[in-house]
Amino acid sequence: MGKGTGRGTARVASGNPTGLPEVLPAARMPHPVRRNLQIATLAALMAAGCGHEIGDSCEIGTDCSPNGDRICDTKSPGGYCTIQGCDHDSCPEEAICVSFFTGTSSNRSCTTNDECTVDELCSLSGWCAPRSAEVRYCMKSCGGSGDCREDYECRDEALMIEHGGQPVLDPDRAAPENLPKFCAPAP
Question: Is this model's pTM higher than 0.85 or not?
Answer without folding.
Answer: no
